[in-house]
Design a protein that fits this description.
Blueprint (H helix, E strand, L loop, with lengths): L16 H13 L4 H17 L7 E4 L4 H12 L4 E7 L5 H14 L3 E5 L2 H14 L6 H18 L3 E4 L3 H4 L13 H11 L12 H10 L3 E4 L8 H12 L12 H15 L3 H11 L5 H8 L7 H15 L3 H9 L12 H4 L4 H11 L3
Parallel strand pairs: 1-2, 1-4, 2-3, 4-5
Helix pairs in contact: 3-10, 5-8, 11-14
Length: 364
């Protein structure tokens, strides 16, 4: 990490705030010993008991990426009955589609796909690009979580299994990425820059969060925090056992995410998300700092042709020109604070947020 995160802090020993936060979270949330085995057994027993008479006893979001695929693999090994849920926002890569098909076929798992209205979603994505904030992926991230909760409620399922984990993605600066759960900022940005009504976009208001969390008591379980999760080993296993194929980089299962992370973020916002991803792998002992520094020195795009191909694909799909993209890239940078939001509710240290997390995870 470096000072492209303008909120990074160093203590008297020269240790940065992200390292300290990782140590604290790992101590509280990672359980690879007998405690982890006990909690896994408790989780499995509770899920099976609650869903004894149901076709599915848990759901999990699948993108075709490593984390969600490995989590799905683990669920089958634990003899659970997951329903895989996928949000199709129009940007799935060809490899992602093939990987999802391969996963479901080989693990014999049913899939629920929500196909987002492209006209609405394109308008919303353009709104966020025009808003000039760093986290233009908020619409997708919000829609994924909203879809998971809606499907869980539809099928009467109490457990959402997450591929999110500490060992590969604990670090992500608040100064880079604002909380995607905030529906108010989505509405406010779309109201200012959008032109289409959002009739079918899956979303969660604050009241929905309260309803699903405190009343429905739907749990969110980060299953990979309870087993030794080494990403390299997981990739090798998935390739060998279910015919899954790896991507060039993290989140490259989405063409838009790949373009946004590799082009827009570094060129406009001076943000290279590989710094956060690699830093987390260093802290979890999965890569050396020396190797990470070598990797970060490489351009995020392997060659100019690949970059230009992505540019052409994205602007054509969004219906804009190179000049339009150039204008977007040249607009002054802004933050979530420039738009109406509910950050008071979603701040990490907010009492309601901490209470909601406790209920959602229930010490899982």
């Amino acid at each position: 990490m470096d000072t492209s995160d303008n909120e990074i802090r160093f203590d008297k020993d020269g240790i940065c705030s992200h390292c300290r936060e990782y140590e604290e979270r790992a101590r509280k949330e990672l359980h690879y010993d007998d405690v982890g085995k006990k909690r896994i057994n408790e989780i499995v027993r509770e899920i099976k008991t609650n869903g004894r008479s149901k076709r599915y006893n848990c759901i999990i979001g699948v993108s075709g990426g490593t984390d969600s695929t490995f989590a799905l693999y683990i669920l089958k090994k634990l003899d659970l009955k997951p329903l895989a849920v996928h949000l199709d926002n129009g940007w799935d890569s060809e490899l992602s589609v093939k990987n999802i098909e391969q996963i479901l076929k080989n693990l014999n798992i049913d899939l629920y796909t929500y196909v987002i209205d492209w006209t609405e979603f394109k308008d919303l994505q353009m709104s966020f690009l025009k808003a000039s904030i760093a986290n233009a992926e908020i619409p997708t991230d919000h829609a994924i979580v909203a879809t998971l909760y809606h499907v869980a409620a539809k099928y009467g399922i109490k457990y959402i299994i997450s591929g999110g984990n500490i060992t590969t993605e604990a670090i992500m600066p608040d100064s880079w990425m604002y909380d995607a759960k905030d529906w108010k900022i989505i509405k406010s940005i779309h109201k200012k820059f959008g032109t289409k009504e959002l009739k079918s976009f899956p979303h969660l208001t604050i009241f929905d969060w309260v309803h699903y969390t405190f009343f429905k008591q739907i749990k969110y379980i980060p299953i990979l925090n309870y087993i030794p999760y080494i990403k390299k080993d997981a990739i090798e296993l998935l390739v060998k056992e279910i015919g899954w194929r790896n991507y060039e980089g993290k989140h490259h299962e989405s063409i838009y995410t790949k373009f946004f992370q590799n082009y827009i973020l570094p060129k406009k916002f001076d943000i290279d998300k590989r710094r956060a991803h690699l830093s987390t792998l260093i802290l979890s002992g999965q890569i050396s700092r020396e190797d990470a520094l070598k990797e970060i020195q490489q351009d995020s795009y392997s060659d100019k042709k690949s970059m230009n191909d992505d540019i052409e694909y994205v602007i054509k799909k969004l219906g804009i020109s190179r000049e339009d993209l150039k204008k977007i890239m040249s607009e002054p940078k802004k933050t979530y604070k420039d738009y109406p939001n509910d950050s008071w509710f979603f701040k990490k240290n907010n009492f309601l947020s901490r209470l909601a997390k406790k209920i959602i995870t229930r010490n899982y």
